[in-house]
Structure formats: C-alpha cells, structure tokens
Amino acid sequence: MVSSSLIDAVKMVSPRYRRWKRLLAGLTFDPDGLSRPVERPGERDFVICGCPRTGTSFLSAMLYQPPSVVTVMEPWDGMRLPPAELFASLRGEIEGSGRMTRGRLNVGALFGDGRVEWGRDGEFPHPIRVGDGYVLGVKWPAFWRYLELLPDTKFLVCLRDPVEVVASLRSAGGRIAEGLDYDIPFNRRMNDELRAATRDAALRRVLLYDYVNSRLLPYLGSANVFVVRYERWFDENDALLSEIGGFLGLDLGPGPAAIRPGEPVRDPDVEELVRAHCSTSEALGYPLPGATA
C-alpha cells in the first residue's frame, strides 16, 4: 500500500504541481496596497462576488448573454491587476479581437445543453459579438473585498443557506474543503485568521462562511448592491432575472444555464456545526437549523 506521504512527495515534484506553484507565485496583488481613492471601473462594469459555493458561477453563466452583457469567470488577471485596469484590459481584448481568451466558463457547454461547466483560466477561448454600450461583469468570489473601495460600482452579491454552503465547501475539495482560499496575497489576511482560529477543517468551513458574510452584511442595503439569493433560481427565476436586469439597466433574456435543483442537504454533523458556530445566518435571513420561529 502506497503511503500518503509518498503520494504527496510525488505530487510536489510533478510538472503540473510546479506550474501551479509558479502561477500562484506570480499573483502578487493585494487591494490593501492600492492608493485611495481607488480608481473605479466604467459605469457599465459590474462585479459578481460572495462566499464560495453560493452560486456565483451559476449567476455568471446566466448573465452571459452577448451582445448586451458579457461575464468573465475568475480570470487570473483579477489577482494581478487593480479593478479599473482589469476591466479595461478585458474590454480591450473583446473589442480589439472579437474574442475572449480569459475566464473559466465553458461557453460551448453552456449554449449546447445549459451545463455550467468550468476549467482552467483560458481553457475555453471563444468569439464574442457585442453591441454598443454592452455591460461587462467579472466574477470572483473574493472581490467582496472591493465593496468598501468601490462605492459607485455595481455589485451582485450571492447569498445561500449556510448548511448548503458548508456541505458544498466540503465536497469541493482542495483548499476550499480545508476552509481556506488560494494561498496568494489577495487572500492572505483571511487565510491567516482562519488558520489561527482552528486546526479543524470542518469548523473552519463554517468560519469561512462567517468571515466572508460578516463583511458582506454592512453593504447589503447599499444602492450599488443587489443581493442574489441562490434559492430564488428554483421558484422565481424569471422575476429574479428581471430584477437583476433592472439593476444593471438591461433587458435580460431567460439565461442560457439550465436550472437543475439538487436534493436539499440533510447532514446532521454539518447542521450541528452551523447551529453551534455560525453567527451570520440569522442576519442574512437564514434561520439556524432546528431554531424555532
């Protein structure tokens, strides 16, 4: 039987792992280093953010509706460039080449059968036709950090029930399953605080949910913020898209992503952790498991 330490050692010397570490080493940007006030993106640019596993990818896919609106999912340049420069760079590529080579969304699968599928940044380059005055969105969950810095930029903030999110974090694998985000300067302060709080990955997943959402809460009533609750996709998606369109100044279509409701999470261990340690659930509008009305 091969030991886990041997497997880890082989992984660490593999070419793929070395490429990954080189990529992370090049992502040196931290919003704390930006001069204030921070230069805002354009008036027709918007941000999709929220805690991981709250539906940010699904929202990005639903809003990929060229020629009126284009979304770019997690381009690594978002961890290299300040916001105004990032959006200008993406617009330059779209308008200059009629293509998008960045982002993780598989546009072919999306328009083929409605699948929300993603891969590596740049894995699915595709042509884009845009109209005059098109709207451009960038999806990065961690861009909640810009809420304080960009009060005039529009944000779509995703929320979801904590039990569902914490269970999904566990099944996602990688650092997210450990209750941490990418090991880069953009996330360093959060990762350090979460590591210091506990060595228990199960508890840290709950604390990750709380960490992000406690920083979202002060902005959820702001005029430049629209809250997208994941649960609304399954019983009022038409109304939700209409409201998002009004917020962005667009007439949105029904959206290309297929809505496929999953089974509700019923995990007593996750529910118990959330009930014992989640401090933001009630304020976000999600009663704690087992709580009485």
> Helical content, roughly?
25-40%
**What's the count of strands?**
7
Write down the CATH class: Alpha Beta
What order do the helices and strands follow?
HHEHEHEHEEEHHHHEHHH
Total separate domains: 1
Query: How does the major sheet shape up?
Result: 5 strands, parallel
CATH architectural arrangement: 3-Layer(aba) Sandwich
Structural account:
- With 293 residues, the chain is α/β, with parallel strands linked by helices.
- It has a single domain, classed as Rossmann fold.
- The protein has 12 helices and 7 strands.
- The chain has a 5-stranded parallel sheet with strand order 2-5-1-6-7.
Brief overview, please?
With 293 residues, the protein is α/β, with parallel strands linked by helices.
SSE map:
Elements: H1 4-13, H2 15-25, E1 45-50, H3 56-62, E2 69-73, H4 83-97, E3 99-100, H5 107-113, E4 126-127, E5 135-139, E6 154-159, H6 162-172, H7 174-177, H8 188-197, H9 201-216, E7 225-229, H10 237-248, H11 268-277, H12 281-284
